[in-house]
Specification:
Largest sheet: 5 strands, antiparallel
Helix content: 25-40%
């Protein structure tokens, strides 16, 4: 009789082991499937770059465009410049992962602003990952600043190694519309 119990216990143990093994294989398979979908989305570049905002330089010679690219798990932004008479646009900045803004606000707050002399370009928006003390223009964070003549860049994102800039830096570059947080 005791041998029967031992056999039953062994059989139950084998059954439980098989179920756990199946569950483990199923979980690992699901993880691999999600990883494959993410990798394919990354390799294919997501749905492509969609323009959000554009701004012509004061002299009308250059147009700046900020575009977003949604992928399976994140969102990236890039800024391109196109000079009048030239066909190709030049990518001057690509953001790190900026995550998804609130539902319904997909990229509706990012704006490009030229300084009056056309020497500087500023990118602002409400949904950027920025340093806690990053300067703001109302609800919009001052995110990225670009010197058009030298290519020098500043960014208030903790995800970049670019130097930070302040509200007074932006204002000293002729971006007088920037008023700061109320």
């Amino acid at each position: 009789m005791e041998g029967d119990r031992s056999g039953a216990t062994t059989m139950l143990s084998r059954t439980a082991t098989k179920r756990w093994a199946w569950a483990g294989r199923t979980f690992v398979g699901a993880v691999w499937a999600v990883a494959a979908v993410c990798a394919i989305g990354y390799l294919l570049g997501g749905p492509g770059w969609t323009p959000i905002d554009s701004a012509a330089s004061p002299d009308g010679g250059t147009t700046a465009v900020v575009s977003q690219n949604w992928s399976f798990i994140d969102r990236n932004l890039r800024v391109t410049l196109q000079r009048r008479g030239e066909g190709a646009e030049r990518v001057v900045f690509t953001s790190p992962d900026e995550g998804a803004p609130d539902e319904g606000a997909r990229g509706e707050t990012e704006r490009l602003h030229w300084s009056p002399d056309g020497d500087f370009l500023l990118l602002t928006g409400e949904h950027f990952f920025v340093e806690a003390d990053a300067p703001r223009d109302g609800d919009a964070a001052l995110y990225w600043l670009y010197a058009a003549d030298t290519g020098e860049m500043w960014c208030n994102s903790p995800q970049t190694s670019l130097p930070r800039f302040s509200l007074s830096d932006a204002q000293s570059k002729g971006l007088d519309f920037v008023r700061g947080a109320p």
